[in-house]
């Protein structure tokens, strides 16, 4: 209840104040704007030093010349070269089978002799009493027993024998000279001083510049009081004089903490025990430490293993008994001599052939030795050495000589200033009178601005439209609202941001034309105020979407 009472009292007080300022004798159908003598602002340029002046040092480095010098990198010496031994090939005979003997059998010889054999002994016969005879068999040796010799051949075996095919010799091996190196030190580089610039040091700071002072403005509420008794809702709106805070900008500045300086360092400084060689360099010279010599290396004989047949057991003979050959024959033998007259009966003989065999004998046959001709390499001339002179070698080294030492060149970097324009109130405005305005200007009026897709940049045609339609309205001292809209394509948030950027682009252009920013209100409504049915999900033509992509202005209460 207490809040309601306070609201009513506030409404009555405001109505009483502004009722006295309403236009007198207004004409029906006319529109009026409460004209306020505008505050007169002038722009004042303020120069702020954003960076101080400081010294800038640059180092001109030392310059050097390069000279060359010839030095000995290898002293003269001698080397030994081996003259190799000469060899010749000789032929020699190797006995691969020693001389031996063999027994040759002299076969037995057979001869025949005729022998008269009594086949019937001489006897007597009696005429009266004949003798009694009987036939008896007897053996006759037709071939007497004999012997024959059987040769037992010699036994041989193959033995391996090592034959020298290359006689032992010698060769000379050169023990090369031992070369050593010695390090020669020379002054390769001269050093000038090294200059190190310590640049100026800065600290970051800032300055706050008030570009627009604090002011106040009248504002009317959008909705009338809840218990308004007037048929005109504008009679029941609250009017409040609200403070507008000052606008400041912060300018980042740089302050000089310490100016530039130079640190001079000697070109070569090993006073702290470091390993700096102060431009000294070395080169290596090759020298003979031990001259070349030779040593004799024995070359062993080269042998070859050959196979040799050797008689282990000489040939012998053994006697084989050949038995005699006999022949059984018959002969009549008187058993009982006749008793009467003895008649001599001569012996009956028969001639037979008798085989006489001369037994086998042997004779010794000499087997000559078997030799093989082979080749062997024989050193005819032993190796020697000869001395080769090695010439001295020279090389060129480069030295760096200081031509001019380093120096410092100094220049002054001037301070950097930034000019900031701020608004300064020259004359305070105030409430004056009501002024008749075209009623159309109180409503939203379209600005024929065709924005490029997704762009918030004013084209020359758009600026010409603002110059022709909006600047004359603002010349009367009124305040305006710039409202920009989009179609429904795209997200709501992106459309809202795009419309705000487009409204602000128009505002910025008006400010560049000298219109005070306090007289301009810019709003971006995105797709929240469509003029037709083309909301999200509705298929529309490009012409229908174009009707929603608009930028407008309207006159609002003076501030």
TrEMBL record:
- Provide the leader sequence positions: 1-19
Compartment(s)? Cell outer membrane
Q: Does this entry carry the keyword Nucleus?
A: no
- SUPFAM superfamilies xrefs: OmpA-like
Keywords attached to this Swiss-Prot or TrEMBL record, sorted alphabetically, are: Cell outer membrane, Membrane, Signal
Q: Where is the OmpA-like domain?
A: 438-559
Keyword Ligase on entry: no
Name of the protein this chain belongs to: OmpA-like domain-containing protein
Q: Which Gene3D superfamilies has this protein been placed in?
A: OmpA-like domain
Origin species, per record, is Mesoflavibacter zeaxanthinifaciens subsp. sabulilitoris
Q: Which Pfam families match?
A: OmpA
Q: What is its main location?
A: membrane
């Amino acid at each position: 209840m207490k809040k309601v009472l306070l609201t009513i009292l506030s409404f009555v007080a405001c109505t009483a104040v502004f009722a006295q300022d309403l236009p007198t004798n207004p004409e029906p159908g006319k529109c009026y704007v409460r004209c306020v003598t505008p505050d007169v602002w002038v722009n004042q340029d303020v120069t702020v030093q954003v960076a101080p002046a400081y010294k800038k040092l640059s180092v001109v480095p030392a310059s050097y010349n390069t000279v060359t010098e010839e030095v000995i990198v290898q002293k003269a010496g001698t080397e030994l070269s081996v003259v190799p031994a000469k060899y010749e090939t000789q032929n020699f005979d190797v006995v691969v089978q020693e001389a031996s003997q063999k027994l040759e059998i002299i076969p037995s010889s057979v001869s025949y002799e005729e022998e008269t054999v009594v086949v019937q002994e001489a006897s007597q016969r009696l005429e009266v009493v004949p003798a009694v005879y009987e036939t008896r068999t007897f053996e006759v040796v037709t071939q007497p027993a004999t012997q024959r010799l059987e040769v037992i051949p010699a036994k041989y075996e193959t033995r391996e024998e090592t034959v020298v095919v290359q006689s032992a010799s010698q060769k000379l091996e050169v023990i090369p000279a031992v070369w050593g190196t010695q390090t020669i030190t020379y002054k390769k580089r001269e050093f000038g001083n090294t200059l190190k610039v310590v640049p100026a040091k800065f600290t970051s700071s800032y300055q706050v510049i008030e570009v627009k002072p604090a002011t106040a403005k009248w504002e009317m509420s959008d909705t009338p009081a809840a218990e308004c008794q007037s048929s005109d809702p504008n009679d029941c709106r609250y009017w409040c004089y609200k403070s507008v805070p000052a606008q400041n900008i912060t300018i980042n500045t740089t302050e000089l903490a310490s100016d530039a300086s130079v640190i001079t360092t000697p070109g070569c400084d090993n006073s702290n025990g470091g390993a700096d060689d102060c431009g000294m360099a070395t080169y290596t010279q090759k020298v003979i430490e031990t001259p070349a010599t030779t040593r004799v290396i024995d070359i062993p004989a080269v042998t070859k293993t050959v196979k040799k047949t050797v008689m282990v057991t000489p040939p012998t003979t053994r006697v084989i008994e050949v038995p005699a050959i006999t022949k059984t024959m018959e002969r009549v033998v008187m058993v009982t001599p006749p008793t009467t007259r003895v008649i001599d009966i001569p012996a009956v003989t028969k001639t037979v052939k008798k085989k006489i065999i001369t037994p086998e004998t042997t004779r010794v046959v000499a087997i000559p030795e078997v030799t093989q001709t082979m080749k062997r390499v024989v050193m005819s001339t032993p190796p020697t050495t000869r001395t080769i002179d090695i010439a001295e070698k020279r090389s060129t080294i480069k030295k760096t000589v200081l031509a001019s030492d380093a120096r410092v060149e100094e220049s002054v970097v001037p301070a950097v200033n930034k000019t900031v324009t701020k608004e300064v109130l020259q004359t305070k405005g105030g409430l004056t009178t009501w002024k008749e305005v075209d009623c159309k200007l109180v409503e939203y009026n379209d600005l024929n601005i065709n924005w490029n897709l997704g762009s918030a940049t004013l084209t020359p045609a758009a600026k010409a439209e603002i110059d022709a339609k909006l600047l004359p309205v603002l010349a009367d001292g009124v305040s305006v609202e710039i409202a920009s809209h989009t179609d429904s394509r795209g997200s709501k948030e992106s459309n809202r941001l795009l419309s705000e950027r487009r409204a602000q682009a128009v505002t910025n252009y008006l400010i560049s034309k000298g219109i005070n920013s306090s007289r301009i209100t810019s709003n971006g409504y995105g797709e929240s105020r469509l003029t037709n049915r083309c909301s999200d999900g509705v298929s529309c033509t490009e012409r229908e979407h174009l009707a929603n992509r608009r930028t407008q202005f309207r006159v609002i209460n003076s501030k």
